[in-house]
Specification:
376 residues; Aspartate Aminotransferase, domain 2; Aspartate Aminotransferase, domain 1; 2 domains; eight-stranded mixed β-sheet; three-stranded antiparallel β-sheet
């Protein structure tokens, strides 16, 4: 059976975990946490990177730094994971969903401005499959209406928009290191901060409301409770596991992109025959091979294809159920405008296996079975 996902593993993970244990510092902000943060700051050029226990927690920290109040509104796509919305719904803000673009599955930048009200405080954008949203237009709207922009870049580490790393264009960016992502620590994430004015506040939030980070840098003689906060620090053992992969990030990325390109090449005849649709990557975007998906004619065909692939020892899956149609989405949000693409496109999308250890032979087998299903 070809699994849908296999967590990335490079070979040095357990060596580094043991080193963290031998250092007798396995809680947060140890040697490997610092190494990971410094690496991410270097490749993104962001003012500060704080490793977190999950992308969910990175998003929650971003929401706290945006200072949402009860009744504030946040514009976002409905086609995303629940964490994108939970982050600010927990603060009492309301979700305002807008439609997506059918080509990239990202928020339609042309619909954002119509959703802005006097209560709008931020736009949360999601770079689906590591392909950037149209950030120039989004940032222009944000500047004109004085809105914060948070980039849910969970799937988009090492991706760019017009040469700019995703996660660094908006006010805050959030990465995921869940086991399904290109680089993993099991559960984990990172918060990227563009404006250094937010760093001290973010460190206090992350350290249970204390100035413990300043204490360990020797900037204060003792640390004290300064503000509200929580514990968003991952274990240094988790960071050690991640660092082994960051050392090989370029190789992991290039391998995934090679498999992505092979899928694209092998399945192109089905697209040209009008049987399926393939991912679209705009010219100004560089992706990271995070996922490969196809779009079938409709949900019924997708279900039959999933079953056919499973019968042939390949696990393929569909993705998000749009948030606005879920019970919590109805309770905590509203859809602005027409749902022209969100639901119908989500019902057609099928994800094929994609992971670092996936072989060229396996990709050829999977693509061959998709072709067989369509009689090609």
């Amino acid at each position: 059976m070809i699994r849908f996902n296999v967590p990335p593993f490079t070979g040095r993970e357990m060596e580094y975990v043991k080193e963290a244990v031998d250092n007798m510092h396995i809680c947060g902000d140890g040697i490997f946490t610092r190494k990971c943060s410094e690496y991410l700051e270097k490749i993104t050029g962001t003012a500060k990177c704080l490793l977190t226990t999950s992308c969910t927690h990175a998003l929650e920290m971003a929401a706290l730094l945006c200072d949402f109040k009860e009744g504030d509104e946040v514009i976002l796509p409905s086609y995303t994971f629940v964490s994108t919305a939970d982050a600010f719904v927990l603060r009492g803000a309301k979700a305002v969903f807008v439609d997506i673009r059918p080509d990239t599955m990202n928020i339609d930048e042309n619909l954002i401005e119509a959703a802005v009200t006097e209560r709008t405080k931020a736009v949360f954008v999601v770079h689906y499959a590591g392909v950037a949203c149209e950030m120039d237009r989004i940032m222009d709207i944000a500047r004109r209406y004085d809105l914060k922009v948070v980039e849910d870049a969970a799937q988009a580490m090492m991706c760019t928009y017009k040469g700019k790393p995703l996660g660094t264009i908006g006010d805050f960016g959030c990465f995921s290191f869940h086991e399904t992502k290109n680089f993993s620590m099991g559960e984990g994430g990172a918060l990227l901060i563009r404006d250094s004015a937010y760093i001290e506040k973010a460190e206090i939030l992350r350290e249970k409301g204390t100035d413990r980070s300043r204490y360990f840098r020797g900037q204060v003689d003792k640390y004290r409770w300064q503000d509200f906060g929580s514990s968003y620090l991952p274990s240094d053992m988790n960071a050690a596991y991640l660092y082994a992969q960051l050392e090989m990030a370029d190789e992991i990325n290039s391998t995934r992109i090679a498999r992505w390109n092979l899928y694209q090449k092998l399945l192109l005849p089905l697209k040209e025959a009008g049987l399926i649709e393939l991912p679209v990557v705009p010219r100004e975007c560089v992706h990271n091979g995070h996922m490969f998906y196809i779009k079938t004619k409709d949900m019924e065909e997708r279900t039959r294809l999933i079953n056919f692939m499973k019968e042939n020892d390949v696990l393929s899956v569909f993705h998000y159920v749009p948030l606005h149609s879920a019970p919590a989405g109805i309770k905590f949000g509203r859809f602005c405008g027409e749902d022209k693409y969100t639901t119908i496109e989500s019902e057609r999308l099928l994800r094929l296996p994609m992971f670092y250890q996936l072989t060229e032979e396996q990709v050829r087998y999977i693509a061959g079975k998709v072709k067989e299903f369509y009689g090609c």
